Amino acid sequence: MGVDVIGRALAAGARSDAARALAKAAAIDLFTNLSVQQVDAAVAAVTTGGYAQAGLGGATYIADGLATAALAAAHPRFCKASANGRYFRLAGDCVQVAQGGATGGGNDQPAIQAAVAYAAAVGIPEVRLLKLHESWQP
Fold it and tell me: In whole angstroms, what is the distance from residue 107 CA to residue 113 CA?
C-alpha cells in the first residue's frame, strides 16, 4: 500500500512538471522564420512545423545553456536567435538531416554534414538519413 501511495505521488509530480513545461512552449511555422519571431522570456521550447518548408524537418528547439551566439555561429542550421535575441537549439536524441535543411531535391551534402557536425558538438548520439521522397538517395 505504501509503495502505491509513493508511486501515485511521484506520477502526480511528473504530470505537474510536464504541464509546467508545456505551458512554457510555443509553436512557430518554420525554424527558418525564428529570427523574425518575438519569443516571450517565459518560453523554454519552440516547436516548428518544418525547417524551411512545412512538413519537412519539424522539431523542438530549446533555450538552454548550450543555445548561445557561439553555437548559432558554428551551427546556424540548428541554433538560431529569435527577433528579441533569445537563442534556441535543436533538442532530442537524434538529428534528422531534414532538420538541417535536406530536402531530397538536390545536393543535400551540406545539410548532411551540418547534421553530423551539430550532433557531435552537442553530444547527440544519432543522425538519421530518412527517405524524404521517392527519388531521394542518401
Answer: 11
How far is residue 104 from each of residues 6, 9, 55, 80, 110, measured CA to CA in Å? Answer: 50, 48, 13, 23, 12
Could you tell me the pTM of the whole model? 0.78
- Identify the DSSP state of 78: T
CB 123 within 8 A of CB 78: no
* pLDDT tens for the chain, residues 1 to 138: 455 545 455 555 545 554 555 557 789 999 999 999 999 999 999 999 999 989 889 999 999 999 999 999 999 999 999 999 999 999 999 999 999 999 888 899 999 999 999 999 999 999 998 766 554 454
